[in-house]
Amino acid sequence: MTNYIIRGLGGNKTIRIFVAITTDMVEKARKxxxxxxxxxxxxxxxxxxxxxxxxxxxxxxxxLTLQIKGSNEIKSIVAVSxxxxxxxxxxxHPNVELSINDKGKLDVGGAIGNKGKLIIIKDLGxxxxxxxxxxxxxxxxxxxxxxxxxxxxxxxxxxxxxxLIDVDGSVKASGGFIIQxxxxxxxxxxxxxxxxxxxxxxxSSMVDSGMSGHEIMVEVLKNFDMEIIGxxxxxxxxxxxxxxxxxxxISIGEEELTTIINEDEKAxxxxxxxxxxxxxxxxxxxxxxxxxxx
Length: 294
Ligand SMILES: [Zn+2]
Description:
This protein is α+β, with helices and mostly antiparallel strands. It has helices at about 25-35, 35-55, 110, 140-155, 185-200, 205-210, 215-220, 240-250, 255-265, 280-294; strands spanning about 5-10, 15-20, 65-70, 75-80, 85-90, 115-125, 130-135, 160-165, 170-180, 225-235, 265-270, 275-280. Helix content is about 35%, strand content about 30%.
């Protein structure tokens, strides 16, 4: 099954919804980062949220970084997406083990904590990136993204993210949706929306039952006349390459590079996001050193 996002518009064009099916890409992330169940759920929710938020970007070279600075065992999660929704992600403590919470679910909020920050960086190709941040509310990710939209962008949003883990630790189902009322929305529509969201089944159970993005949109917003206005496929995808790693090596400076050349005679750089290894021998490092001196 491929990963995709559908976007829908309805309620006389005053409500928009993005629904993402991300089971495969979150499973890919789990394999790369070898995450424990609660870390898979946390990383998966962040990747799914970032992917949807990234897909809202307009420009081809725009990027969105979602960073969670947790106050508990998971100290940091970073997910970076582009305008197509392709996302790469990283988690600082992939082995966190926590029991299930009192709702019988993996305790993502307990693993992340509720005293940290959510930081959103939008690189829109301007001189300076846009940086917004808000306090974590629950550490469950979805509520924290909704709070970010409210406080940092004054955009009310309903955010739902869910990852269901199979008995063998693999990802059984993953997905999410973001619903946003648009400026001309009527009070009555907002009340209806609130009611609809309250009664909606959990996103992970809907994805697990095999519902498509379209079917999920119709199920959640059944009292609204919704229309699909776009669909795009995406994946867990890293954009690292030899050239970028070389640039990073050059940027550590002459002194560091000289030390590496003299002491180790080689370097192995591992990409944080996809774990790809880049190896440099002495000759290659000397070439980079020469470039650093320029
Ligand atoms: Zn990479």
